[in-house]
Amino acid sequence: MLLGLYFYSSGFKNAGIKRKVFLFLSSALCLAISNFYHPSAAIIICAITAHALLFTLHKAVKSPQKFFCFIKSEIKNGRDMLLPAFAVILVYAVIFNISIFLMTESGYYTGTIRLPNIYKIVVGFNFDTKGGWNAEDYTYMMQPSSEEATAKGLKRIQERLSEHSRTEILELMIEKTDNVWFKTDNYFGFHIDGKQQRINNTDSSAVPSVHMFYKEKWEQYQSLMNEICTVDNLFVYGMWMLALAGLFYVLFTAVSSILNLLIYIPLGWMLFIMISEAQSRYRYPAMSIIILLAGCGLYVIQSSWMPYIRKSLRHILFTRKK
Fold this sequence. Notes:
The chain has helices at 2-11, 17-37, 41-62, 67-77, 82-106, 119-124, 135-141, 146-162, 166-181, 187-201, 208-253, 261-275, 284-321. It is mainly α. Helix 1 runs antiparallel to helix 2, helix 2 (17-37) packs across helix 5 and helix 3 packs across helix 12. The radius of gyration is 25 Å and the shape is globular. The protein contains 13 helices and no strands. The longest helix is centred in the last third of the chain and has 46 residues, at 208-253. It starts with a helix and ends with a helix.
């Protein structure tokens, strides 16, 4: 995913047409490959589209009389954003769909379990599980045809939204955002539960030494997991604090830069999680973008704030010496 974004951004920095074409094609290929690893390329595609459209719209609002001349000049000079974005999306779709077709025809991919795309949204508005996975919803959406499953999914979403007020729906979205982006990964809880189950299933009379080993090490193990959770929380909060500074830097300093694309991706990811299934592990692909924004934030601190901090420290130290 990151390699695809790198190729995409590099395409706007190169003047040669052949080089641009190669970079944009490489970007589409990388996004298609990354989608097999984690189906999040759709969010990247939406971010690329929104970035190109809003950039073009900004120019149209700024100079409506010269807008078409500007577009013509941008295309001629190879600086247009709409055309490359459309090309990358088209090539990505072609590569991905042809790959799926070839894998299906070869028998490598059977696709025995097929759920409609709306399934994630059905789960996302499950107020009982706070947008988490639900076995009942999974069974409910397993229908013979995708059309029937989609119709039933839309019906269930409508029922759940009608049963709750707008305030409750907003609270659910905020809680899901907090759980996914700022809380400890729930994998730690599942892991500890699994270890506890293993201890409970150990027959103390049959294998007393193994049972005692687990019992003696259990408190130490729980303490270690709690420390890992604490480090994980510190890392997440630290990255977000730096990313916030980076976000403002990109937003107000690099208005016309391709760096603006870094803002659209996490924001789009958040909006998607608000209406879909919420699992803390879903943040991992997007955290790479957050870390890039955190790098921008660290640059802001180093270049803008550190001189003032050093000056203040020198003043304090100098005053104390006097």
